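Limitations

Structures in this collection are predictions, not experimental determinations, and the ligand pose is part of the prediction. Treat each record accordingly. The example that follows, with zinc ion as the small molecule, is included so readers can see exactly what is and is not provided: the inputs are given verbatim, and the output is the predicted complex.
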Amino acid sequence: MTSVHRLIEKFVPEHYELFLDVSRASKTFAGRVTIKGEAKETTISLHQKDLTIASVVIGEQTLDFTMDDENEVVHIQVPEVGEIALDLEFSGRITDNMTGIYPSYYTVDGVKKEVISTQFESHFAREAFPSVDEPEAKATFDFSVKFDQEEGEIALSNMPEIKSEERKKTGIWTFDTTPRMSSYLLAFALGDLHGKTAHTKNGTLVGSYATKAHKLSELDFSLDIAVRVIEFYEDYFGVKYPIPQCLHVALPDFSAGAMENWGLVTYREVYLLVDENSTVSSRQQVALVIAHEVAHQWFGNLVTMKWWDDLWLNESFANMMEYVAIDAIEPSWNIFEDFQTSGVQAALKRDATDGVQSVHVEVNHPDEINTLFDAAIVYAKGSRLMHMLRRWLGDEDFRSGLKIYFERHQYGNTVGRDLWNALSEASGRDVAGFMDSWLEQPGYPLVTATVENDQLILSQEQFFIGEHEEKGRLWQVPLNSNWAGLPDTLTDEKLVIPNFSALASQDSEALQLNTGNTAHYLTAYQGELLDNLLANWNNLDKISKLQVLQERRFLAESGVISYSELVPLVAGLTEETDSAVLGAIAQVLSGLKRFIDEDSEEETLFKSMVANIFAKNFERLGFERKEGETDEDELLREFAVAFTLYADQEHAIEKAKAIFDAHKENIASIPAAIRADVLTNQVKHAESKELTDLLLDTYIQTNDGAFQRQLIAALAETKQEAVLDTLITAFENKDIIKPQDLATWYLNFLGKPFAQEKVWAWARTDWDWIKAALGGDMSFDKFVVIPSNTFKTEERLAEYKVFFEPQLTDMALSRNIEMGIKDIQSRIHLIAKDQLAVAQAIQNLEL
Ligand code: BES
Ligand code: ZN
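Predicted complex:
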C-alpha cells in the first residue's frame, strides 16, 4: 500500500463556511462550502469520498478540477499561490455504514423514525464535504444545516445555535463559529431528540440527549456525571473547558462506543443511558465512558496529535484519565480495581503474543488507521503505561507538566515528544528516556525474583504466550517494591543485590514488586519468595491478592508453571469478600474451565470446588438486594449468583426459577443485577419455544441496550436446533439485530459448544455479507478475533487457517489473523500439556 501525501503541504485551510441541506426522505444531502486558506502551490487537493462536485469557484472565476476517487481527493487548479477563498458546490448520498453522515433507526410507539448524525473520526469528514481531512489541518468552522424537519425536531452541533429567529423563517439552523480544530471533530445530530441540560460552576452548558424512544429520566445519571467530570478536569488540568457547551447524545446506531466531537459527544445508547433498573457495573461503565470522552475535550480536541501514528496520545491518555476522574468524583466505587480486572488483564494478554504492535505505530495509509484502534494496546496498555508514568513522576509533577503542555500547545498539534518534554520540564526527570522503551517496543518484561547465596537476583526478559522469537528486548522497569533498600529501576537484564538476609530483616512483610500493580510487567517469585508471599496471603491488600492471582495465571498461560498449581490455590480461597479478588478468581476459573470437558467427572468435581469458593458470599447475599446495601455487595452478588448457578446448586436453580415465574409477565422487571442469571438459568433448565420466543420478542421490543445484552446471553444457552436456526437467520435481519450488535451475538454463540459448529459455518459461508454489512466498521475485525479467542482444537485451527490465511493480504485483518493463529495454537498446546495434571489436581481436592 502506498503512503499518502499530506494535502496540508499544498493547501493550509483556515476557515470553513459550510452549509448542508439534508434529506432523510431521499437519503441525500447537498452542500456549499467556502474554504479560506493558503495555497502553497497552484495545484491543490481536497479530500472527498463518494461526493459529486458540481463546481469550484474563486470569486467569479470557475476553476478546473479532476476527481481522483481512488485517492479520495479532488485536484484543483488555482490561479495563484497565497490566500484564497474557494467556493464548492457538492452533493452526496446518506448510507448505512455508520461513517460520515448516516442515519440511526428506531421505533417510537410503533412508528419507525430516523435521526441523522455524523461520525468523522478518523477520516470520514471527507464523506460529508470537501476538506483537508487531516488532524493537523486545524481550522475554524461556521456550520449551518437544513433538513426535512418535522414538528418538534431539533438540530445540534459543536457550538450553540445563533440566529434562531431567522431559523423560524428559513428553516436553517446556524451555529456559532467553532474554535480552531481538526475536521474529524466536526459533528451534528438532527431529528426528534429530547434532552436535559444543566450548567457547571463556570457556566458551561451541559446537556444529555436521546431519541424520544427513551424517557428523560434515563438521562439524569449521565448529566450529573458529565457536569462533575468537567468541573474535575478544569481543576485537575488548571485549564478551563474551552467552549460554551458540552452536549452528549445517545444514538441508536453507532459504530464505536462513543466519540468525542468537540461540544457534541456522541454515544452508543448503552454508554449514555441508564434505565431505572440498571446494574452497578453498567452505571460505572457509563461514567467511565463519559469521563473518557470529556478528557478528550482537552487531550485530543484542544491539543491534537499531528498524525495518526500518535493516536495513543489521544486514546491512552483519555483511557487513563477516565479512571483518575471517576476515582476522584466517586471514591467509594474503587474504580481502579475495575481497571485491574479489565484493562490490565486485556493488555497483559494481548501484549504477550509475538507479532503484537507497539503503542506507537507507523501508519501511512488511511486504511491502516482502523487497525490502530487496538483496544488492548492503544487503550489498555497505553493507559497502563500512563498510570505507570504518573506513579513514577508523582501526581503533582504530572499535573504541572500537563498544564505546561496544554498552555504551550492549545489549538495546535503535537507529537509524543512534546508531552515528554513538558513532563520533563515539570519534574526534572528524563521522561522520554523512561517511556521510549515502553512505547516504541511491543511486549513487556517478566521480572524473575530469586534468592541465591544470600543475594537477591532480579532479572528481566520478554514475556510471551505461545510461539515466539526472542529479540532480547529490555525495559526501564520501575520496581515499586514494598521493601526499603532496593533500587528504583531495573534497567539491565540482571541486577544482583547483596546481603539479602540483612535486607529482609529490616522489612516485616513478604517482598513484593510492582506494588499497586501500576507498572506493565509480571513478576515470577521463586522459592522462598513465593512461599513467603503465599503464606502471608491473609495480610495482603486486595490489589496484591488480585495481582498474585493474575500473575500466577499468566505464568500458567505461558507454560512457566503448570495450570494445575492454580487449582489448590483458588480452591482454598473460600473467605474472600472483595469483588476485585473475586474478579481475579473468576478469571482463573475461566482459564481452568478450558481444560474440563463438558459432562465429565472432572466437571462435577470442578463445579463443587466453584460452589465452595462462592458459598459464603452467596449465603450472605442471596438473590435479592437488601435495603441500604452497598454497591460493592451488589457487585459481589453478580459473581456469587452467576457462579453458584454455574455450579448447578439445586437450591439456587430453584430460586432463580421462582424469580422468573414471579416476573414472567414482565421480565424486564427482574432486578438487573441478577436478570442475566435468572434468564440464562431458565433457558438452561426449562427451555421451551414459548420462552425463547419471549426472549427474542423482548429483545426486539426493548430500548434498553444493557437488557438486550442479557437477553443475548440467555438465548445463547439454547439447545434447540430450530431455535438456533431462527437466530442465525436473524443475524442478517437488520430489523431484529442491528449490525452494531452482531459481534456480541457472535461472541456469545460461538462460545457455546452446542452452537459453535453452526455459527462458525454461518460466518464462513456468509462472510461476504458480514463484510458488506460491517467491512470498514470498527467491529469488523472482531469476526477474526472472536474465533481465535474461543477455539481450542486442532480441527478448528485447521478450519481457521483454511478460511483466514487467504485473507492475509487484507491490511485491515492481517495482523489479527497472524496473531489469531498463534493464539489458537498456544491454547491447544497448553491444553495438551496441562490437561491431565489439572484433572489430577481436581481429583486431589478434598471437597
Ligand atoms: N475517539 C474514540 C472513538 C473512535 C475510535 C472513533 C475509533 C473512530 C475510530 C473515542 O474516544 C473512544 O475511545 N471510544 C471508545 C469508548 C471508550 C470509552 C473506551 C470506543 O469507541 O470503544
Ligand atoms: Zn477515546
